[in-house]
Amino acid sequence: MKKYILSLAVVSLFYTNSNACAWSDPDYEYFNLFTQSIIKDKSYLPFLHTYSSRFFGDYNPSMIPDDNIETWKKYFNNQLNYAETQSLVYKVSMNDLNALKNGTPSNPLLQKLGTGFYSKYKEGIDYLIEAKYLEPFMSINYVESENSFYYNRDENRKNATSLDNNKTIAALTSLYNAARNPEIKQRYGYQLVRLNHYTRDYDAALQAFKTYVEPIKLKGTVYYMALDQLAGAQRGLEMNGDANWNFFQVFMNSKSRKESAFISMKLSDTASFSNIMKRANTNEEKNMAYFLLGYEDFNNPIPIMEKMFDINPDSEILKVMAVRSINELERSYLPTYYYTSDAYGRVSVYRGNTENNTSKEATSDKKTTEVKEVKEEKVSLWQKIVRFFKNLFGGSTSAPSGDGSKASQSDDELLNNPNRIPFYTTGYGGYEDNTKDYRDDLEKFTSKAKEKSKDEYWQIADAYLKFLKKDYKESTEILNNIKTTNPEYLEEIKRMKVLNDIVSQPKVDAAFEDHLMKDYAEYFVEKEVKKDTANVNSDYDYYGTAPSTADFLKDVMANRYFLQGEDGKSFLMNNKLSDLQYNPNSSLVKSVEEFYRKPNKTQFEQQIIAKNMDSVGNVDAFFNTIYGDRAVRLADFEKAKSYYEKVQKFGGIPRENYDWTEKDGQKITQKQYASSEYNGFNNIPGLVFGHNVWESYQSPDAESMKSEGYTEFPFIKDNMNKLELTDVLIQLKKIGNGKDEKAARANQLIGNLLYNTSILGYYRHVFVMDIDNSNGGKYYFWNNDKGNPYKYYYKNFLDTSYIEPDNFDLAINYYQKALKLSNNKEEKARILFQMASAEQGKYYQYEAKAPKDFDYSDPKWSEKEDARQKEMDNLKNQKYRTYFAQLKAQYSDAETTKSLMGSCSYFSYFMR
């Protein structure tokens, strides 16, 4: 007997949309501004547009009424409400009903109905007693075949074959004959069809339908319940065409069985909907068949919608097709993240983790390999999913100017046309380059439909399509003219008016911010979410929070501020102040600080923007640490000291610990630094002035680094904070102005510190607001080779690494002074090696910026990349091996040189 286990690979075939992140949910990747569920016939809610699952599920199941309950409610002359009827039919036990029959009800609901209820509805209650007796057995017996998938079924579970078949059929037949109410009689017929279906006596099921169901001449809920069972039996007899047609009738005529009927149609006939169309006779059947065809093959539904419109312009399922079309279009225009790729195929995306503990290679030779492998890894991953990015605003994608102003972009187009929102011009779902044509066709159809249909839905849809076209004035005029009392329509109209108002605003000033707080605060003031304290994981959502209208408006505001040059406000619309630690570039930090110190903030600025500044304990210390760090990297030690002197009570770079246990799930806590631990300001070891013995970032510093010896500089401590460190550097700089060996040593130590805290050094984390030297985005050369990568807003800040690049010439200049002043051969060899290492950094920076006239999509990419790499290697040897060549020519016999050849494989190769 063959058994198969469904693999994840097989399961993945159900989801056809590729995505940048395997864990992402495609329904969370755009802003669902047009609410699909405003359709009036809620029975079609499962068939709204979704990529996340087989059926749309973003609604309360109670929104779809149960046909069976509604029929029973009518049978009981509406004496019970819907919930009470549901309880009576599905929840009240058989024993409780028997107690009611005997005049001794104990169930509260039955007591409320009174003993006279049974005598009034005797046939119905007796049927429910029989149905509740049968229900535990009403499932088909599982028969395993050699081609069955592995199925862990409870073998002791009851099924229809557990009953005495002859006795049960005889009892149901007797009850059928005794019943006088046609509906109750038909219900017994339904049970007979179901029993024979579930015992796999398919022929008997067909006969039971003809004998006990059809003659009643009722085509209501019970009839279609029985027809559903008949179709199942027909499928068992491989009468697939008839089975499919009957499932189609169930789909068309029931409210709560549409999902199951749809699945059954798919299982019955691979050409299911095409064959249904051939059998459709009435306009209603043709209309429904067109709907199912369009639903299954959603490449371009408008031709199908035209046919449906010709049949019935007021059709509810036509609105379902329209809302699905609008949703598909939305995904093209309203992504929650934007993707950009450069010549290497690298992509910036708002997802991921800024910290990666991947170990670094142990030699200088491997550093080139590391950079190259990073590029190739990104290319191969993203090439499969990259969506070609066109300008969100219709203009240039050139980088913003360095002073924070965006005026350099495409002849001021963004500023001259500020009423733009971040809409994509490409899409999912097969439209991509034809999105505009599709939008225009949909708009024409909607305009036509609103003229013929009496439903205000089409006017709302038309207004929304005008919104997508950025015709906010026309959209608002349409909305203002809609007359409706439908509460869902009214809510959608209200939201769309808000959208039109905000996105059409050419500039955000204090007056407009006051307007937002006065009229639209609900979209910007975050509501407090109560957490379940008994469950540590209660507020944890694997995908995060689904995007909302409020999220969209937040992005619009962030973009407006960005275009206006107010980078600090733009940043804080999407990020916390503490996020600056991951990409502490100076101009952005300065803009955020300016907003922080801005007096007389508007209410919007105080409540909406400034609230994101509370993630840092001591804000002044945070800013001054960033400024001081940058000054050190620029070798301006006096300026750095002036900033560090203002750092008081620094609690450490704000980080969070993420702990997971089987018992408690994920627990997030604020990181608490040990008294001896480096926290971004304190506990910098004196080895920061040393040199690396071997290049291993994951090894302890005592293993990777070696001291130069500091006896002649007693002010260098084994442990320092940044203020003390800059004081040391200032003293060394002063000593370095001398002409002796001590001056040479002082300059060498400064050069060491600048190199050791560069992107190549063991202490590379010290002056870029990091807490250790583990690998991550900020340590890739190509992440800061293009200048500031943020072009529209800072929403993807945590995933697009950028800090100002190192200036290796600063270290080399100090080494030059040391080399000139030193008379010690061994020291000169050491200094030259350090200079050569810094020179490699200059090469890596050049390589990252070097132009490339081909990309990964080029069929000759591999061949061209190899040729380019050969060219780069030649250039490296010609222009970036100056100090290695000098070391080889003048100091190859030095003990220091021999020692370096033993510990550095690349240097050993070069010296041959």
TrEMBL record:
Top-rank taxon of the source lineage equals Bacteria
Alphabetized, the UniProt keywords read:
Signal
State the signal peptide span: 1-22
Statement: the UniProt record of this protein carries the keyword Signal: yes
Q: What is this protein called?
A: Tetratricopeptide repeat
Annotated source species: Chryseobacterium jejuense
